[in-house]
Design a protein that fits this description.
The chain has 246 residues and is α/β, with parallel strands linked by helices. The chain has one domain: 3-Layer(aba) Sandwich (Rossmann fold), CATH 3.40.50. Helix content is 44%, strand content 14%. It is built from 7 helices and 7 strands; from the N terminus they run βαβαβαβαβαβααβ. A 7-stranded parallel sheet has the order 3-2-1-4-5-6-7, sandwiched between helices. α1 crosses α7. InterPro entries: NAD(P)-bd_dom_sf, Sc_DH/Rdtase_CS, SDR_fam.
Amino acid sequence: MTSQRPVALVTGAARRIGAAIADGLHSAGYDLALHYRESADAAALLQNRLEGRRRNSTVLLRAELADTARLPDLVARCVTRFGRLDALVNNASGFFPSPIGSTSEAMWDALFASNAKAPFFLAQAAAPHLRETRGGIVNLVDIYAERPLEGHTVYCMAKASLQMLTYSLARELGPEVRVNGIAPGAILWPDSGKAYTDQEALIAGTALKRVGAPHNIADAVLFLLREASYTTGQVLRIDGGRSLGL
């Protein structure tokens, strides 16, 4: 049966910012396709919590985003379950250093797969369904898409590609589909990769002098999908003013 509520597919939804985005959209009345790769336990806990709030409102979708041939099936499984698709949130992201002199092709492929390639092919598969619902896409970019982070060249390149994808898709998919991005600043310290031993200096360089919270990103996603009806091709910086001092 076709859901009477809007439906969003969120990649990397099991943990961290992805889980906050999923929770925010669900609270706002969206049914959700929750993508995860390895975090099965966290995904199940999130689903149980959301289902406790509203039954039959979620589906778990496990997929390796680097397996490009399987991405159309990810969208198809969402549409099969709910009968529609109103939003795609490309949140999943690989992040680790890629120093010049020790970066391998496999590292390049991994960073581009999650940060640029998968968002493109997911958007391509989702576009016909989003056109039907006059829906939207939100890409989680990064403030480092515009200014580099030392030792993370390939990650910065991949996020720059995602930022350009945001602009280009807005032209390609308009007027039916709006496409925007969010560039987070210091929201959560990464599980791995850059250790951020310079946390105090980083916060000191932020205009608001504090780190953000995952719900700040979730609120921005909801705003871009539901409220910003005359906004497309934009990347909204949610960084506490950090980019002013980069």
